[in-house]
Amino acid sequence: MITDRCDDIVSTGIQADALRLIHKQSFDAVVIESEAEDSKVLDFTFEVYGVRPKLPVFLTNDWGTDLAMGLKGLATGAFAW
Q: Longest Cα pair distance anywhere in the chain, in angstroms?
């Protein structure tokens, strides 16, 4: 999870911990790293949207340049609605 316009990164590998953090803190985005399509990822995404419906959720299997570009766009308001 990334906070403060991509300045700070908060990381956890436990979905329950991530949801607790999302309840307590404000985040600009959630990034989920997954190597396979997994129903747990979809369930977690629905849970995130249940807590914060407008919070962008990115799914990646690689921390490559596309992710960095997407997060930069988020920081500059490219995904504002």
A: 31
